[in-house]
Amino acid sequence: MTVTVEQADQEFLDAACLALRAPREGGDPLDALGWWDLLGELADRDARMAALALFRAQGRELATSAALGALMAQPFLAATGHAPGSLVAAINHRSRRRGERLIVIGDVAGRSLLVDRPGQGAGVVDADRVGLRPLEVAGRLALHEVELDPSAWAPTVAESHASPARARGQFLGRLALAWEILGAAEGALALAVAHAATREQFGKPIGTFQAVRHLLAWAKTDCVALESVAVTAARLDEATPPRHDEVVKALAGRNGRRACERALQVLGAIGFTAEHSHHHFHSRVLALDALLGTSAELTHALGGWVRQTRADLAVDAAALLASPQ
Amino acid sequence: MSHLTGSGRRDVLRDDLSAYAASFEAWLASRPAELVAAARPLPVYAERVAVTSELMRALFDEGWARYGWPEQVGGLGGGILHRAAMWEALARHGVAAMALFEHLEILAPTLVAMGDAGFVAGTLPRFLRGEERWSQGFSEPEAGSDLASLRTRAVAADGGYLITGRKIWTSWARYATWCLVLARTGPPESRHRGLTAFAVDLRSPGVEVRAIEQANGTDELAEVTFDEVAVGPERIVGELGGGWGVAMHILAHERGTFAWFRHNFLYRQLLETVETGTPAADRLLGDALLDLAAVRASSHLGLHAHASGAALGPKAAFVKLLLGASEQSVNDWALASDPDLAVGPPDDEAAARRQDYLFSRIVTVYGGSQQMQLDTIAKQILRLP
User: Which positions ≥6 away from A293 have C-beta within 8 Å?
Assistant: First the structure.
């Protein structure tokens, strides 16, 4: 629920949730939604809002797809010559135990992988010619670690071209992750609200107790704050100030985790069982927070950067006060 | 109105928000003396009132503060987005706070929408020009969050009303000419149905204003007593018995759109003092930036809702909660960065920042406590049992 809901955006979100929940036999729900076609139209506001709404739906429905990698690869297509959707970016991830790793999300069979190495440029490898080792990650996320023979990679996009494409891809990727965190947090909250209305203690539903009501109201407030920021960033896109993707992603991780924690507190012990669905949403938020910069890292870095540079991070008032259409 | 060479120019500034913003920006860049005076840290509240009133006079005389208000009350047309642009620019150019002109954004929209046309046309221009100020008489010693239990009563007499009762926590009453008083015109048990809003001249016989010295060192709050204060029927705002609707209209602004105005000054406070930060407080600074981003995004959506004639309704509670959280996180960072706020020398800047810090601890109380906002969300949005 937005502070102000736009009808078209809401309709697409509902359609995406439905398509992900009940995909037609053997069909790709993203195909059914026409989502892949949106990738070529991200400069259009409505297409961009719809493209990102898919991620919110994925969070709510605990669905997984190759959409994030495809979105992050989009800025590279002019250089690689791929058709939208046929190239999927692998995500660089530093593991404390295992060093630099490459991760892909969703089913990438038959697509090409973009392997981007900051400082060296980006190269394309065939997804069918690398090892894909499934990662045991909670949250119903299909994650694979890419096993790539070092000799199989060579830069085909020079660093001078890769650098701006990388920045744009990270911007889109962080926004998409924020929208998916929002959806997953909303999913966790919905379970907790339903539980509070039916679970009885002391002879009445626990949702009648103010302590419980306030936990849920805070969780909702965290979701609405994230939604306002995510929607505004998606609308304004490149009119946002520098590092705004980091602001959005940092807020998403912080608020998403907080909302899940409050939801769990309301659910009580049942929410901590494998049988209950809460942990899928909660774990998905944790997993997505870990990609493209955690909330903790980004928040600290933004603070340090503003302290040292006095950079103005506020979204331009003129852009905000102009008609949201 | 030096910049207004004719009505054609006025029409452009009224109809084109970006033209208005650009022209205003140019005026601010000339650093008018009233702007410079309002940008200095002033720990004495009466001095803040004086410089801010002077700034309002200049803004009105130059025309800027008249956009966003209808012509019949001294305005030049346009809407809330003009006012949003003006105050954002003032904050960015260093004005320290709206101070008591916060009530322009909280009370004046309701006066325009619901007040007696003749009365409002006669008084509001003086408010816009900073010559007269308004206060809001809602809370009473026995009626805080439970506003509908208020006891101040208005009794019909000689074609008008006599108001008797006691209001408290009345911000800026001692600097104000007018007070919008919520009083009971129905029987004592009528709760919210028996209330009426009156515009009361605080210079009237029977009014006594007593300042309340606050824990942060300023004294802009007051207790106001009314002893058979006579008001004419044209002083009713809204309908007789319609006071609750008037109060809700005001609170819709105080909670839904006001955050846009106030958060710009919090952001300015943060940016102007950012060099006092320490690496150890970077995480708190980052959190404050995130909280301000949330207020900015949610409150601009609230502004557009109002500009299109809608209101946020219970969703305004979110914006109110986010504003309070951001004011506290900005000041959490300020205190962590600069322990002088607790133990430092009393120079003007440290004193003003200390006042701001302490005030930030009470922002979750005024205008509807944090707990009341959470109750609203639980009941009206989450629909909990």
Answer: A174, A246, A249, A250
C-beta of residue A132 within 8 angstroms of C-beta of residue A144:
yes
DSSP SS3 for B264? helix
pLDDT tens for each residue of A237-249: 999 999 999 999 9
Q: pLDDT band at residue A1, thresholds of 50, 70 and 90? A: very low
Interface test with A, best of B23, B303, B318, B329 (most A CBs within 10 A): B318
Token digits of residue A148 = 């790539």
ipTM of the complex: 0.96
Active site residue B71: no
Q: Which residue of A has its CA nearest to B284?
A: A303
Choose among A3, A218, A233: nearest Cβ to B374: A218
Beta bridge partners of B8: none
Q: Which of B298, B315, B383 would you mutate first to test chain A, the one with the most A CBs within 10 A?
A: B298
Min Cα distance B129 → chain A (Å) is: 24
Condensed to tens digits (0 to 9), the pLDDT of residues B55-102 reads 999 999 999 999 999 999 999 999 999 999 999 999 999 998 898 899
Beta bridge partners of A26: none
Q: Which of residues 129-188 of A touch B (CB under 8 A)?
A: none
Average pLDDT over chain A reads: 94
Distance CA A208, CA A198 (A): 10
> Is B296 in contact with B268 (CB distance < 8 Å)?
no
Q: What tokens appear for A316 in the block?
A: 């331009």
The domain tally of chain A equals 1
Give the whole-angstrom CA distance, residue B129 versus residue B195.
31
φ, ψ (nearest 5 deg) of residue B135? -125, 170
CATH 2.40.110.10 is the classification of domain B135-242: yes
As a whole number of angstroms, the distance between CA B122 and CA A221 comes to 41
Q: Choose among B84, B292, B312: nearest Cβ to A321.
A: B84
| Domain membership flag for residue A117 | no
pLDDT digits (tens, 9 = 90+) for A261-283: 999 999 999 999 999 999 999 99
- The pLDDT tens digits for B7-25 are 788 899 999 999 999 999 9
Pick the CATH number of B257-381 from 3.40.50.1010, 3.30.479.10, 3.40.190.10, 1.20.140.10: 1.20.140.10
Closest CA to A299 of A247, A230, A241: A247
Q: Which domain holds residue A303?
A: 163-321
